[in-house]
Amino acid sequence: MKHEEIRTVMVGIAALATTASCVVAGEDALADDWPGIASLQYAQGRSMMHECGATMISERWLLTAAHCVDEARIERNGTAAQYYRREDGMMQRLGPMRVAVGRTHLADDEDVKTYAVTALHIHPDYVPGEFERGSDIALLQIEAGYKGPYMRIDGLGFDAISLASDTYVSVAGYGNTEETSVAEGDLNARGRAVYAPSLRLQQASLPLLSLDACKAGLDAAIELHGLEQVYGDYSLGEHTVCAGGGEQDSCYGDSGGPLVVHDEYGEPIQVGIVSWGLGCARAGSPGVYTRAASYSDWISDITQLDEPSG
């Protein structure tokens, strides 16, 4: 989740405490309960830096937030690298992007395979650097080889789910467990250092909010922190979902990760993508999520996955 003070990606491990979000006041989660859960990373030397969450939605396609990859580039070798824009406007390369999928723990799990990103598709209505204006959604294609489970997406192949206020939804990620927590690091089975706000996957349950309640909470937080010039043009509507506003929340590093409901069999369906908020788990300040079903046509057009029904 993007923070009101973080507008660019910073270099090094210190950046992970601010640009990468985890779940606040959550609990340990198992990757098996989150099919296709993924960590977007970039390599610096032999170290891997978690930056955002994502979900595999097929064997080659990954769903995430646009602000996680709006500075990334496909390079001459046909794979993506992460960049950031310095204060002087110049782009600086951080390192090649890699995707780790299905990790309960980013360093302790025996699986150390990661996948290169071979294509980037950011929604055409997304304005770079202005995630609060909406369409904060992107699709990434990875190299062949992944054969694991993937997440079902609301509205993709079936009618969109009706989401009522006060319904409880769940979110998961490797982001901060507190608003000001710092990055963790450990060696994986290959001897590479892996850094993330939380190396252990976390999850939390949050209530959905009506758009009116969401707007009231955001407006109050924006006024309290004097952020009218930065966030005065934020957008809510059918393309967004709001949740939280209490002790549990997504946070820095959870960006791009899944917000889900569970069907009658207890299986998750992704209804949202972690996008932005003002701080983490601040009383009355909700989190804003991109509504997946609002973009199902675009997802289908890019990926050629199931057309939405209805």
Automatic annotation (TrEMBL):
Sorted UniProt keywords: Disulfide bond, Hydrolase, Protease, Serine protease
Keyword Disulfide bond: yes
Organism, scientific name: Henriciella pelagia
Pfam families: Trypsin
Residue span(s) of domain Peptidase S1: 23-304
Family annotation (SUPFAM superfamilies): Trypsin-like serine proteases
PANTHER family cross-referenced by the UniProt entry: CORIN, ISOFORM B, TRANSMEMBRANE PROTEASE SERINE
Protein name (Swiss-Prot/TrEMBL): Peptidase S1 domain-containing protein
